[in-house]
Design goal:
Elements (H helix, E strand, L loop, with lengths): L2 H7 L2 E5 L9 H11 L3 E4 L8 H17 L4 E4 L2 H6 L4 E4 L6 H8 L4 E6 L2 H10 L3 E4 L16 H11 L4 E4 L4 H9 L4 E4 L1 H4 L4 H16 L3
Parallel strand pairs: 1-2, 1-8, 2-3, 3-4, 4-5, 5-6, 6-7, 7-8
Helix pairs in contact: 2-3, 2-10, 8-10
Bound molecules: the ligand Cc1ncc(COP(=O)(O)OP(=O)(O)O)c(N)n1, the ligand Cc1nc(C(=O)O)sc1CCOP(=O)(O)O and magnesium ion.
Organism: Calditerricola satsumensis
Cofactor: Mg(2+)
GO biological process, one term: thiamine biosynthetic process
Length: 219
């Protein structure tokens, strides 16, 4: 995928696992989010009670649903799972497999995203050449226990000043504050609870898409 298409795909990025769906089936929540207009989906089945077999079966169902909508399907952390699921890519953190190693296993044409939470982590990421960056937590979040203190839109702006890599803000983002993240230089927003905890995930996805697109279009 070229850089321009990747920027568009990052517009409304759902990062989700079963633990963040309020007891509803993950496939149901993802299907609703796709109808509402999410543009990328990350399968983040962390600390899951599911067996590996169940995880693979669920991942395949999610991948198929994403394909029906023409939306890239990314796997969190695990390159082995990404390969098994024929995913479009992986997202790795600073403690996970480096992008260059992930690429060796995944082969060409897959997307590799990497997390950045500090200027020092940005230095590491720029050396390791991921395809896109996830910058956060922009705002306070309860969806990731080890997320650290909010970095604000200031870190998004700083990262944008140092690189033209596609980048997405993550952490505490909702329709009300999404425009500020785009204004700071992000190509899109990544969310867990704004969609996973919403009573109507389809409407929540639509509201986020409106907020992001409205700002991208200068509305
Ligand atoms: C888009 C996006 N950005 C950041 C993260 C966080 O990744 P990581 O730091 O590896 O933390 P975990 O998600 O693995 O807990 C992400 N997953 N997606
Ligand atoms: C998965 C994740 N990564 C983060 C980071 O800062 O790298 S914050 C986060 C959780 C985001 O969840 P919510 O949208 O519910 O705040
Ligand atoms: Mg990780």
């Amino acid at each position: 995928m070229d850089k321009r298409a990747l920027r568009a795909a990052l517009s409304v990025y759902l990062v989700i696992g079963s633990a963040h769906c309020k007891g509803r089936p993950l496939l149901e929540v993802v299907a609703a989010a796709l109808r509402g207009g999410v543009t990328m989906v990350q399968f983040r089945e962390k600390d899951s009670p599911l067996s590996l077999r169940e995880t693979v079966a669920l991942g395949r169902a999610l991948r198929e649903r994403c394909r029906q909508f023409g939306v890239p399907f990314i796997v969190n952390d695990r390159v082995d799972l990404a390969l098994l699921l024929d995913a479009d890519g992986v997202h790795v953190g600073q403690e996970d497999l480096p992008p260059s190693e992930a690429r060796k296993l995944l082969g060409p044409g897959r997307i590799v995203g990497m997390s950045v939470s500090t200027p020092e982590e940005l230095d590491v990421a720029l050396r390791e050449e991921p395809d896109y960056l996830g910058v956060g937590p922009v705002y306070a979040t309860t969806s990731k226990a080890d997320a650290g203190d909010p970095v604000g839109t200031e870190l998004v702006a700083y990262v944008r000043s140092r690189t033209d890599l596609p980048l997405v803000g993550i952490g505490g983002i909702a329709p009300e504050n999404a425009a500020a993240v785009i204004a700071a230089g992000a190509d899109g927003v990544a969310v867990v609870s704004a969609i996973g905890s919403a009573s109507d995930p389809e409407a929540a996805a639509r509201a986020l898409a409106r907020a992001v697109r409205g700002h991208q279009a200068g509305v």
